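Acetyltransferase/esterase
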Amino acid sequence: MERRPAVRSDVCETDGALLHHEVRGSGPALLMISGAGGDAGYYSGVAEELADAFTVITYDRRGNSRSTGRSAEPMDLAQQAADARALIESVAGGRALVFGNSAGAIIGLTLAASHPRVLTGLVAHEPPAVNVLPDGDPDRSFFDDMAALYAEGGGSAAGRRFAATTRGEGTYRWPDDLWKRFLGNQDHLFGTEWPGFAGFLPDGAALKAAPFPIVLGAGAADRGAYYARPSVEIARRIGVPWVEFPGIHMEFLRNPAIFAAALRVLATQMLSREGRVPQEWAR
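Tokens:
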């Protein structure tokens, strides 16, 4: 029977919140930032797959699931980035490669622009940064449309519509505990976090000047989707590579082994650029 890597759970206290986080494995630090729902459980399977080569850190974002800090006041992206920075400083020894999906990719891009000293690299997977799309593009109204639906019908109505816009959702089963926590996070997502994500524009100058590699990417099954198209435009604007990942928006939850295999290759290349060999192989 295959043994699963040990999971070390703890909390990180920062700016009035306790951030639940989980650590697996050893090696270079890899912080994984989740998107809507903000739950570490999205990445449990991928973290287990990568724990043989990386110290994988996952966490519940502020106000979500097992973390505290929920507030009725809108949360800006600066706070989200500061939380990620605090985790890297307290858990990862001050520097980490960062992977973010969806809203987590938006947070990762914000972190890279505002706190570059704590990153060794960034992989931004399908940031729904619709403000980079051309004027008049119908996808630019996504966040406003969802905000109006939330105001009219509440978190359940908005959550159902949100899932319907995401390819592949409903074709596989979420873990029961993750699903239950997500349902409890919907009002926080649409009522508190939404304005920050809606207003996001990448800081092109800061990202171009980043002293570490940045890669944008999207899933092969998501061509043309509102949350995938911006990745191509951001990569073009800041002059960095773009890569195609396997599957759908949340392939890491549907098929973690396949997604982890792709991320393993990319992360290893990013950390061993300029011919440097990862410490785990230089023995």
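The mean pLDDT is 94.
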